[in-house]
Amino acid sequence: MRNAPPLALTIGEAAGVGPDLTLSVWRRRAELDLPAFYVVGDADFLARRARVLQFDVPLMEVTPGAASDAFARALPVVPLGLPITAAPGKPDATSAPAAIAAIRRAVADVPAGAAAAVVTNPIAKSVLTRAGFADPGHTEFLARLVEEATGKKVTPVMLLWSPELAVVPVTIHLPLRQVFSALTTALIVETGQIVARAFKTRFGIARPRLALAGLNPHAGEDGTLGTEDRDIVAPAVEALRAEGIEAVGPLPADTMFHAQARARYDVALCMYHDQALIPIKTLAFDHGVNVTLGLPFVRTSPDHGTAFDLAGTGKADPGSLAAALKLAARLAAGQPALAPA
Q1: What is the largest CA-CA distance in the chain?
Q2: Of 291, 334, 24, residue with least CA distance to 162
Q3: Cα–Cα–Cα angle for 238, 244, 250, rounded to 5 degrees
Q4: 3-state secondary structure (DSSP) of residue 130
Q5: N or C: which end of the chain has fewer CB within 10 A?
């Protein structure tokens, strides 16, 4: 793994905590036993943020090929060619172009062999939307970049992983009222197939065990609290089983996430965003990792947002970014993610 190409880390929302965390994890690279990475961004901007934080971090503009050699003595920066002027907590007109360009560059570096995987710092969807960004979030944008580059449609699946719990929201960035019309048996089956395949090939689990949450309270209570679990979720479970995938459900979501229940499955498939993210953020708030499955490369991210209120204060916890970097390196190298990241 140490001889692999470096990881490509995006700058994320420049006014958020991403730059702070990037500087912080590099300072603690030996203590955290981090793999080599480079950040796609603006060295002048990072130098200014380091001064705000009173961090002594040398910076070196490099090509990706020189990043691993530079990593021990300076934070390698692959320049975007775009200036970034956002102040901590205050996005400006440079925020969105830099965030988008950094993602594009990092994604392009993996098939070129310059990077082993992509790790993305948090973005601010509201900032990007105001700048004309059309995708609901990182996950969907990454899928579109792959389709633009290859001409092949991909179905991205969001996995939130920690040593304590792994969860997948089947529907992702949707208002709750739209979940009922978006959720289909075919979508659940396709998601389960992608998850099972990734847990075999990326996570080293020969027979992944999938637990599917019910959509309604008490998984519909035999139809008295909604028929979706009987009509949509249960057929998906049967279809996955017919393919030889170990799947159970629909299960009442309120009894799925205590320790004894978690021991019976490897990953929980949840029907909507918060059903998945609330339990993992409760159990692993400081070290959960967002992983995008279904892409032809490894992508991870910290499992938190931009935290504008913490930007520039030095109080942001770098644990989730460190976990994302370590998990990305393990998955890209074909090493099972069995130990805490």
Answers
A1: 63
A2: 291
A3: 30
A4: helix
A5: N
Among residues 99, 135, 111, 114, the alpha carbon closest in space to that of 301 is found at 99
Count of residues in the chain:
341
pTM of the prediction? 0.89
What's the CA gap between 223 and 215, in Å, rounded? Answer: 12
Rounded Cα distance, 89 and 127, in Å: 12
Whose structure tokens read 């949450």? 213
Tell me how far apart the alpha carbons of residues 105 and 110 are, in angstroms, rounded to a whole number: 9
Tokens coding 336: 């099972």
Torsion of CA 318, 323, 324, 328, to 10 degrees: 150
Distance CA 172, CA 175 (A): 9
Cα–chain-centroid distance for residue 341?
14
Look up residue 62 and give its amino acid.
V
Domains of the chain in start order, with CATH, are 1-155+294-341 (3.40.718.10), 164-283 (3.40.718.10)
**Spatial CA neighbour of 182 closest among 110, 285, 271, 287:** 271
